[in-house]
Amino acid sequence: MGRDDLRISIRFDVARRIENHPSVNELLGCLLARMEMSTSEAARLRTALLEVGRNAVELGNRRDAEKLVRIHPRVWEDRVEVEIQDEGDGFTPSESLRASGGDDDPPGASRCENCRA
Fold first, then answer.
1. pLDDT digits (tens, 9 = 90+) for 25-36
2. What is the pLDDT of residues 44-99, one digit of tens each?
3. What is the pTM of this model?
4. Which residue(s) pair with 75 in the sheet?
5. Measuring CA to CA, how many Å separate 84 from each of 35, 65, 66?
6. Which of 18, 24, 7 is nearest to 79 (CA)?
7. Where are the domains of the chain?
């Protein structure tokens, strides 16, 4: 699939409680309306996007109202990609896992195909 198959591409910034932000709710409604998916799939996608956004606000930005979360969803005919960036200091995954007592290679770690350190 090439760029010509792109149906929607939106970029916007939010701060604070992402799940209560009208733009986020409108975005999710728009994304889900463009996708052919079941009600349960749409509900899972909505939950996942809100959780990732909430984590970016609460953990990445440490609830700092001056810091933004950038959201860039893209919808193709056959998939949805959503890039979410916070303005936090970041972390090193292996150090974070050691601090929490976790393994160096947690289950599901390989699912992150485009992670950036």
1. 777 777 777 777
2. 888 888 888 888 888 889 888 889 999 888 888 788 888 999 999 887 777 766 65
3. 0.66
4. 8, 80
5. 20, 17, 17
6. 7
7. 3-102
Continuous H helices in 1-117: 22-34, 39-55, 93-99
Q: 78 and 1 in contact (C-beta within 8 Å)?
A: yes
Contacts within 8 Å (CB) and 24+ apart, 50-53: 50/18, 50/19, 50/24, 52/82, 52/84, 53/14, 53/18, 53/19, 53/24, 53/84
Q: Which of 114, 79, 83, 62 is nearest to 13 (CA)?
A: 83
The Cα 40–Cα 38 span in angstroms is: 5
CATH homologous superfamily of 3-102: Histidine kinase-like ATPase, C-terminal domain (3.30.565.10)
Q: Are 88 and 70 in contact (CB under 8 A)?
A: no
